[in-house]
Amino acid sequence: xxxxxxxxxDDHAIVAQGLKNLIEGFDFTGKVDLCHNGKEAVKKVKExxxxxxxxxxxxxxxxxxxxxxxxxxxxxxQKILGLSMHSDESLIAEMIRKGAKGYVxxxxxxxxxxxxxxxxxNGSTYxxxxxxxxxxxxxxxxxxKSKESANHPxxxxxxxxxxxxxxxxxxKEIAEKLNxxxxxxxxxxxxxxxxxGCKNTAAxxxxxxxxxxxx
Length: 215
Fold this sequence. Notes:
Helix content is about 50%, strand content about 15%. It is built from ten helices and six strands, in the order βαβαβαβαβαβααααα. It is elongated, with a radius of gyration of 18 Å. Mean pLDDT is about 85; it is low at about 140-150.
């Protein structure tokens, strides 16, 4: 794998330098540029090419959500990974909605930051454990007719099963809750993945956000 070029955007100088040193230590990382607000990030992207941007959320002048939206208008295929101290589910959700491919909390294990970068670089969605848990707390456990709309292909039962999947329940546990066989739940799970085009739980969370199945 070629060394990747990274842009790190963070307004806290000491934290940013520590993260820069950490990321530069990964064996797959090449140059790591650093800037301290969203406006600087947009300017950097106009002048340079980056394999991935690690974007803080709350910053002066232009926050990470605004910067993500602005950058993707310039370079729609730019890969952005949210990186923040904030586990507020609304901030995580908005970053994902604006086009970030994942979200990692700054107090995550080093291995999670490493995995997040590699996962997003390889074209998949990544949520660290704490970020995923925060979004799962937003799940609407509803079987209302409004959620079974033409905007998505899932049935009411599949939406119900999806909510349990996102909460981390196994097929066996879901089967017990719904008084169904594990084989039936397994079939539903395969159908959900096929209909949504998702490969993992992180991608399912993003799909649920995009289709307004989360608050």
